[in-house]
Amino acid sequence: MNDAGYPAIAELLPHAGDMVLLDAVIEAGEEHIACSRLVRSDGLFECSGGLPAWAGVELMAQAVAAWAGWQARCERRPVRVGFLLGTRHYRSDVDVFPSGSELRVEAVRSFHDDGGMGVFACRIDSSAGRAEARLSVFSPPDPNAFLATLARAATHD
Question: How many Cβ atoms from other residues are within 10 Å of residue 84's Cβ?
Answer without folding.
Answer: 16
